[in-house]
Amino acid sequence: MRASLAPSAATWVLAQQAAVRGLVAIKFLAIGRILGPAAIGSVSVALLAVAIAESLSDTGLAQAIVQGKDAPTRNELGAVFATLVVRGLGVALVLLALAPFMASQFHLGRSLLPQMAAALPLVRGVASPGYYVAQRERRFSSLAAIEIGAAFADCGVGLAFALSGAGAYSVLVGMLLGEALKSTLTWAALAPRPPLALRWSGIGHYIGFSRWIWAGSVVNLVLNQFDKIVVGRMLGPAQLGAYQMSSRLAQLLLADAAIALSQYLFPTFAARHRTDANEAARLFKRWLALGAGAAVLVVLALRALAAPLFALVLGPQWRPAVPLFRIFVVNMALGALIAVLVAYLRARGDARAPAQASAMQVVVLIAVVPAAMHEWGVMGVARGMTAGLATAGAWMLYRAFKSR
């Protein structure tokens, strides 16, 4: 019991996952039932713009701090903080400038959702880099407390605004308050705190590793947002809402557990690899086998229960999303296994392999989706993603077991 409650124990990561993803599920499912597909689709367009901008400007510094051989100094953290603040401000200004274009292209009318979403990168950018040091040092209990507190604020405020008639704006109001609370807590609770000064030197040694993180982010941008752009642009917010909710529900029930677990595995694999590479490899194989077995069981259960699950949780207005959900649970299972592979490959310093895998996935997507879309419509896009994920996973599996 004492070991399971130690600050570095996986218990805290699992508790964080259960609480945070549970609160996110409550928020989106409740708001989705209250507002319907069109409102969820409108919010998805605004968040889509944020995801695109943040992926294109990803510095990879967070992962570089966790993976690096030596802990960062206060001056290095100061340079990281300055870089992230400028990045957040730049992304926010770009999104504000593009907001009218986004509204016109994605049928949002006079909605101010894109302008509201532009504040998210700036709020995230002012968080303390001490958060990444805590990840490196595996202080998972502190990180869990911060993440759960922010999720409570997000969920509570979002639901309160939705019930008061704020419509789709309620989702972004909750997110902004949650992110603001999280950024505040990183400064209040986590050490070391970087100096508040604009400095840029001293982090050049992170570039070799972080550039592959950036490359992977850019390629993943195409992979993760291409389908949403096509659906939102061609079919409008209502269809995008159904598409997005089926994907989000599959993610909540399956992939998010593995993604959260990777937050534990990445620093754990990195710490083991710094002392004993063979022990890190054995630990990776155990986690991969466990994840594969769990993923198969969950996929079979969710595909069987898809129709009653949507009827019970979201209501009859979401019934058209059921066939998409059955495809997405397979995709999310593949994504869950890929999360374990990415954590191990990056932990041993091979950030190139995930970026290469993402590039392969793009090639498969471009080759497969046109014919699949012609044959099955929007479901063809989801099936094309399945083929791409399988290709990426196979490549990373090969690289993970290949001796360096």
TrEMBL record:
- Can you tell me where the transmembrane regions are? 38-56, 77-103, 115-134, 155-177, 287-312, 324-345, 357-374, 380-398
Keywords, A to Z, come to: Cell membrane, Membrane, Transmembrane, Transmembrane helix
- Signal peptide as annotated in the record: none
Q: Which InterPro entries match?
A: Poly_Biosynth_Transport
Query: Mainly localized where?
Result: membrane
What does the record list as coiled-coil region(s)? none
Name the source's superkingdom.
Answer: Bacteria
Q: Which cellular component, as a GO term, is one annotated location?
A: plasma membrane
Membrane topology, record value: Multi-pass membrane protein
Instruction: Name the family the entry cites.
Output: Belongs to the polysaccharide synthase family.
The name under which this protein is listed is PST family polysaccharide export protein
Provide the taxonomic classification. Answer: Bacteria, Pseudomonadati, Pseudomonadota, Betaproteobacteria, Burkholderiales
